[in-house]
Input
Amino acid sequence: MAPTLSQPSLPGMPERLATATPSRLSTYEDCPRRYRYAYLDRPSPPKGPPWAHNSLGASVHTALRNWYDVPVDRRGRDLVPTLLRAAWVREGYRDEVQERSVWQRAVAWLESYVGTMPPEPLGVERVVGARTGVMAFHGRADRIDARPQLVIVDYKTGRSAPGEAEARGSAALALYAYAAERVFHRPCRRVELHHLPTGTVAGADLTDESVGRHLRRAEQTAVDIQEAVKAVRAGADPDEQFPATVGPQCGWCDYRRACPAGKDVPGKDPWAAVPD
Output
């Protein structure tokens, strides 16, 4: 089905800036077809079953966000089970035995981690954004610390602990840092991935050059999306403008069953990516 697209600008009007979020840019770079299914086609194709690792990630992120809703003098490790229970998403697990095991491990991660959290960070689940000459983007940072320079903190709950290369190579973290500098008018070059299952902190100090490279790539991706949308609006084949990137990663795609190009790739069990 062809996507339902917004109307073009009126003749003679300035070209609209490409709009983006780090999540959307990453989705398009991974697979333009998946981007189309998720953000353009209306109605969207039906998704597959929910993923347990997404449920786990959402539960932990919400519990950490809600930690800061509690007065400082009432925050303690004994609060963790209550916060996690209130935020817990049960979808995707193999059975109650696996869910209970993951719950217990997540409680232990959080009990260990909350003691390292600053009492009052500059931002929690804070939306930051910026404009360039090409695009306007925004995104939601898990946490922004002030030490005194700003630090972008991103929580991770996956199976593998990230390293410095992953932090340095993260386009999302670089874009958050770029936007945070402009929102708060303070330097922001430090980015960190906090892996709760192992307690690993993978950090990197970005440079103007590295942020610039991430920004230029993001701008190019945003323009590519904009041009593909224009082409479809003008009558081009949506499948040609948003081709599928077929590979083992298709087994994790929400839209695998609806995608002619990827439907024959074996699908993963919804609970397969939950940390051991």
About this structure: The CA atoms of residues 115 and 169 lie 28 Å apart. Residues 208-233 form the longest helix (26 residues). The radius of gyration is 20 Å.
